[in-house]
Design a protein that fits this description.
Layout: E1 9-12, H1 19-48, H2 56-73, H3 76-82, E2 89-91, H4 92-125, H5 130-133, H6 136-162, E3 171-172, H7 179-185, H8 191-222, H9 228-256, H10 266-287, H11 290-313
Parallel strand pairs: 1-3
Antiparallel strand pairs: 1-2
Keywords: Cell membrane, G-protein coupled receptor, Membrane, Olfaction, Receptor, Sensory transduction, Transducer, Transmembrane, Transmembrane helix
Domain G-protein coupled receptors family 1 profile: 39-285
Transmembrane segments: 21-45, 96-118, 139-156, 198-223, 235-257, 269-287
Length: 314
């Protein structure tokens, strides 16, 4: 990549300068990252090796788990590594990679969550047409559209970051590279660039969140005519999904739907959509989901018993 100005690396301020806080954060986020990888891999394997893979909701959930792993892995390992070093640096190339991959995988996750909301809407509001509307071909098309949407969102962000000239301080008051912190240290007028980021990120995230909120309001209204058992089952799956939506969307809206500047609270809000929400997703989707728990029990018991039988033969 062509380096603009004389900056070949950036210094990340990270989460704290206090050594004791850094040690605590290292242990905490290392545990979070391992939990995130384990939980999402268990979800992925359980769905792919069970009958749930053929159901649209769990098909989308497997893609969501993949995105959680990709999305978080672009940021968390570097964060954990920097918590152990005195000088927290990131190369120019890796910084640009973070800008692209964060927005690419993050926006795909947004669109996958939207597809999951569409699935719940059709299942509850149009149950007689569910099999026709949410067939595998259309589900594949929705996933492809999510990837295409991710590319359409992230390439302009990357292009904007690559064009920024850096000729002064190279210190970023964050724990990863993003467009707003880079605009703060660029040695040019970045007002229009900031407005474009708000339009391309903030307004889109807000619009999708409003659409999801309205769809769930319609679902709740429709559930009035369902049986008590039907309401309970629907509220269980919809409640899990809406919890994930709130954990991801609300901090993202705060981060991107505002004047193009950085605030001290940015890092705390970013932790929610980069680490906390992806870590809790497997727990949220399995805690009250009997189908998912049964599939996990069946898949993993078979694997353990199969390994035990193989050892006995040897």
């Amino acid at each position: 990549m062509e380096i603009k100005g004389n900056v070949t690396e950036f210094i990340l301020f990270g989460l704290s300068d206090d050594p004791n806080t850094q040690i605590f954060c290292f242990i905490f986020f290392f545990f979070c990252y391992i939990s995130l990888l384990t939980g999402n891999l268990v979800i992925l394997i359980s769905i792919h090796f069970s009958h749930l893979f053929h159901q649209p909701m769990y098909y989308f959930l497997s893609h969501l788990s993949s995105m959680d792993i990709y999305y978080t892995s672009t940021v968390t390992p570097k964060l954990i590594q920097n918590l152990l070093t005195k000088r927290k640096t990131i190369s120019y190339d890796y910084c640009m990679f973070q800008v692209f991959s964060m927005h690419f995988f993050g926006s795909i996750e947004v669109f996958i969550l939207t597809a999951m909301a569409l699935d719940r809407y059709v299942a509850i509001c149009k149950p007689l047409h569910y099999i026709v509307i949410m067939n595998r071909k259309k589900c594949n098309l929705l996933v492809f559209a999510a990837w295409a949407g991710g590319a359409a969102h992230s390439f302009p962000q990357l292009s904007m970051a690559l064009k920024l000239p850096f000729c002064g301080p190279n210190e970023i008051d964050h724990y990863f590279c993003d467009v707003f912190p880079l605009l703060e240290i660029a040695c040019t007028d970045t007002y229009m660039s900031g407005v474009l980021v708000v339009i391309n990120s903030g307004i889109i995230v807000l619009a999708i969140f409003v659409i999801l909120f309205v769809s769930y309001a319609i679902i709740l209204w429709t559930l009035r005519t369902h049986s008590a058992e039907g309401r309970r089952k629907a509220l269980s799956t919809c409640g899990s999904h809406f919890t994930v939506v709130v954990l991801f969307f609300v901090p993202a809206i705060f981060s991107y739907l505002r004047p193009p500047t950085t605030y001290p609270e940015d890092k705390m809000f970013a932790l929610f959509y980069t680490i906390i929400a992806p870590m809790f997703n497997p727990l949220i989707y399995t805690l009250r989901n009997t189908e998912m728990k049964n599939a996990m029990r069946k898949v993993w018991c078979q694997k353990i018993l199969g390994k035990g039988n193989l050892n006995q033969l040897h």
